[in-house]
Amino acid sequence: MAFALSDTFRALLPRRFRDRPRVAVVRLSGTIGAVSPLRPGLSIGGVAGSLERAFGMPGANAVALVINSPGGSPAQSHLIHRRIRALAEEKRLPVIAFVEDVAASGGYMIACAADEIVADPTSIVGSIGVVSAGFGFHGLLEKLGVERRVHTQGEAKSMLDPFRPEDPADVDRLMRIQADVQDLFTGLVTARRPTLSTSENLFTGAVWTGRQALALGLVDALGDVRTAMRARFGEKVDLRLVAEARGGFLSRLLRRGGAPGGIEAGIGLAEGAVAALEERAAYARYGL
Predict the structure, then answer these.
(1) Using one digit for the tens of pLDDT, what is the confidence trace for 226-249?
(2) The whole model's pTM is what?
(3) Catalytic residue among 43, 73, 105, 123
(4) Among 241, 273, 282, which Cα is nearest to 27's?
(5) How many CB atoms are located within 10 Å of the residue 137 CB?
């Protein structure tokens, strides 16, 4: 069993042990944004503490981000990206992102916060685009004899109401919003990845394997965090995982669905099941 030495004890060791290279490792896994009220995905609020501890780790030579995300909220993706860049510049530490199964859409936006991106040959990378999805139920309501009543102040307040027929004006407004987000996304990727290939359009929302992404300049190398960090810092490198902060008893109880056997438990389990299915569907888009 391996034991991590405290920083106080490390200072008392001989130099040959004290100067062992150290890399802070942060895992960023899951869909980005709110999956459900009791099942949060990746968000700036959830990862800020881990990032602060990683970049503030005494003696760290670099920060490694291990990413496995199909994307999600563009706002949360951008906020996490910006926080990583701000900390990297403040602490003057290099950042290397390592893609596991997938870094797509917002997951790739976060990866672009790193100075280098390393992927497995079979990783799925890319999906540089914006998508909105939903359902329309107005036909169902008519069959059930249900009348939808909505009263608003502001003509766009009920935009894309799923219980009403789709309004072309709403769709046009949504497309303009998407175009603005896409413009930010493509600009960010272009600025952070100056070696991108011009042989094909990389901003269509398409995805590639790690090997294909390497040829296109979307990633810098193929490999994994342990192998790559040993090659760079030596076999004695200390890969120090920064654990995600855990909530207290109440938050854990809520995540489990409330008091065992109570109504809250049933609601929590049902909500958790739906959230799990939605997250599973997000990964399934990439064949995972």
Answers:
(1) 999 999 999 999 999 998 765 444
(2) 0.77
(3) 105
(4) 241
(5) 15
